[in-house]
Write a structure and sequence with these properties.
With 92 residues, the chain is mainly α. The chain has helices spanning 8-20, 25-36, 41-47, 54-72, 81-91. 67% of the residues lie in helices and 0% in strands. Helix 1 (8-20) runs antiparallel to helix 4 (54-72) and helix 2 crosses helix 4 (54-72). The longest helix is centred in the C-terminal third of the chain and has 19 residues, at 54-72.
Length: 92
């Protein structure tokens, strides 16, 4: 299975978010993957009526930066994990 590869700076930020909000790094990583590949919209819609928790806002901002980095490197993001897999197969 394809996994999101974070830069050292992005990894440090993920750990900082987890630490400052007493959350699991693994759980945040899974959510970040969903947000990055565009599969996390349901969670965001569910939170829209009550507002995002601070850690959700931080994770969303990190996802936006990861998406921007991936986009600049030519990886299509935001639609699905399948789109990324298709892109990777074209690069081989």
């Amino acid at each position: 299975m394809l996994q999101l590869q974070l830069t050292p700076e992005e990894t440090r930020e993920l750990y900082a978010i987890a630490s400052s909000h007493s959350l699991s790094v693994e759980g945040l990583y899974e959510r970040l993957e969903k947000l990055t590949w565009g599969d996390g919209l349901l969670e965001c819609r569910m939170q829209s009526s009550v507002g995002l928790l601070p850690w959700m806002e931080q994770l969303s901002a990190l996802s936006d930066r990861v998406n921007h980095r991936l986009y600049k490197s030519g990886i299509l993001v935001g639609s699905s994990l399948e789109a990324c897999k298709a892109w990777l197969s074209r690069q081989s």
